[in-house]
Amino acid sequence: MLKNIHSSKDLENYIYQNIEETAVQKEMREFSFKEFGDIASMQISPQQASFLNFLIKIGNYKNILELGTFMGYSTLAMALALDKEGKIFTVDKDLKTTSYAKKFWDKAGVKNQITMINSDAIETLQNFIKQKLLFDFIFIDADKSGYKTYFDNCLDLISENGLIVFDNVLWKGKVADLSLNDKKTEIIREFNKYIKKDNRVDTTMISIGDGMTLCKKKKNLIL
Ligand SMILES: C[S@@+](CC[C@H](N)C(=O)[O-])C[C@H]1O[C@@H](n2cnc3c(N)ncnc32)[C@H](O)[C@@H]1O
């Protein structure tokens, strides 16, 4: 018997009615679809936004790193969970989408807590490792072909009790359909295997939005 509730438009709407989304978050999400059409569906869902926001509140995380900003919807959800000392570095190579992001962050009153880095994700991670920076929450949502490398690099950047979250690990359910062998689906399958068998970390995978994996370093891990 299936344990998970089947999703439907009605159920999704019901969830959205029962979670918090601020007026600016809603405006930003609606604007992104007007401006970019279907491409905007690569953003996390409002339910995922609420989940990230909640994780940051319960973990009392203060130093956040995000790979893959797009229009800044996920960044905003995380920023709204921070107290005044909290900071987010968010990385995206796309200047156009991120220029919109800044306007909405300003409107939501969180602009000063966000540092936008318009650069390549790997280069940025290597630069941060050289500087010996540490983050207590890392959200990874850039190109899927980079996920393994992002994971390996982020183990040097995450604090002892920090949390790393990966988006899109279920890839619209395609990972479980063995008749599908397209490149992106294979990349995600490979990543899911890779992280599961890595004994440096504890992980869990959840079916929310396009699927998320949560990952933390095992206690007493010496890298
Ligand atoms: C799925 S979207 C991010 C969505 C965003 N996290 C949200 O939920 O609102 C992925 C973004 O990653 C960026 N990206 C892809 N590969 C990248 C790379 N190698 N370095 C930096 N940014 C990259 C793309 O420009 C795109 O905006």
Highlighted features:
223 residues; alpha/beta; Rossmann fold; 7 strands; binds S-adenosylmethionine
Which strand order spans the largest sheet, edge to edge or round the barrel? Answer: 3-2-1-4-5-7-6
What is the top-level CATH class? Alpha Beta
Task: Give average pLDDT, whole number.
Answer: 96
Shape: globular
Count of strand segments: 7
- CATH superfamily grouping: Vaccinia Virus protein VP39
Low-confidence stretches: none
Q: What percent of residues adopt helix (DSSP H or I)?
A: 25-40%
Structure summarized in a few sentences:
With 223 residues, the chain is of the alpha/beta class. It is 40% helix and 19% strand. The protein has eight helices and seven strands; from the N terminus they run H-H-H-E-H-E-H-E-H-E-H-E-H-E-E.
Task: Tell me about this structure.
It is a single chain. With 223 residues, the protein is an alpha/beta fold. It has one domain (44-217): Vaccinia Virus protein VP39 (Rossmann fold). 40% of the residues lie in helices and 19% in strands. The protein contains eight helices and seven strands, in the order H-H-H-E-H-E-H-E-H-E-H-E-H-E-E. The chain has helices at 9-17, 23-36, 46-59, 73-79, 95-107, 121-130, 147-154, 183-196, and strands at 63-67, 87-91, 114-117, 135-140, 158-167, 201-206, 212-217. It has a seven-stranded mixed β-sheet, sandwiched between helices. Helix 6 packs parallel to helix 7 (147-154). It is globular, with a radius of gyration of 17 Å. S-adenosylmethionine binds at residues 42-44, 68-70, 73-74, 91-94, 97, 120-121, 141-143, 146.
